[in-house]
Backbone:
């Protein structure tokens, strides 16, 4: 069984907090994405192949696994100035 890693990630008006998160290669990562803004957001990543609408005040779990080392960018598709990245080492 691969190691499980939970990473909290908030979406605030100013952007993702933190804007960069890290995980070891090969782990199963559970991103706990909380929308702390008053409007719906959409967590999206082409590189992670994930897309999830999250309503204000809600938290959604986004799972990714089997990632090799690299930088995987994500953004809020509804407010595209909000950007962040998952660094896998
Ligand atoms: Cu989208």
Residues:
């Amino acid at each position: 069984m691969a190691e499980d890693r939970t990473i909290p990630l908030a979406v605030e008006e100013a952007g993702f907090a933190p804007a960069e998160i890290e995980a070891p290669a090969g782990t199963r990562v559970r991103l706990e994405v909380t929308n702390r803004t008053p409007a719906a957001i959409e967590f999206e990543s082409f590189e992670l192949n994930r897309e999830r609408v999250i309503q204000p005040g809600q938290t959604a779990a986004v799972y990714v696994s089997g990632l090799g080392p690299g930088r995987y960018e994500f953004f809020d598709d509804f407010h595209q100035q909000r950007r962040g990245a998952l660094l896998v080492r």
